[in-house]
Amino acid sequence: MRIAIVSAPAQRKVPPDYVLSLAKGMESMGHRVEVIDAWTEAGVRLPGFDYVVAVAESTSLIGGKLPGALSRVLSVGSSLVGKKGAAFLKKKGPFTGKAMANLMRAMEKEGMIVNWSDIILNAPHAEALGKRIGA
Question: What is the pTM of this model?
């Protein structure tokens, strides 16, 4: 399966270690994985993937606000209606649940079907989650 991982960390930086570990876990299951940086890429290639995974990090400790780059990438990728996907959020602060709800809402707003969501604790946990996809 071709999987796109849309990485949306709180600040502009290279994909964090937990995103790369998630990709490594998925690749170990035989999937073709491509990491797309929400801060630098437009997202026009998203419809070409079988599965879209959004990995985000809350930009604030309270309120559950997500990076604006994530919604920009998802909205540019036309034809995401009916596309299956997963929502992963890096644990950060006490309002992680609210941020997860915001992430899933952003994906569903574009017509995606979110069939899996989870909170990432650290890089080894992300790799273990990646190995569960398609299993």
Answer: 0.93
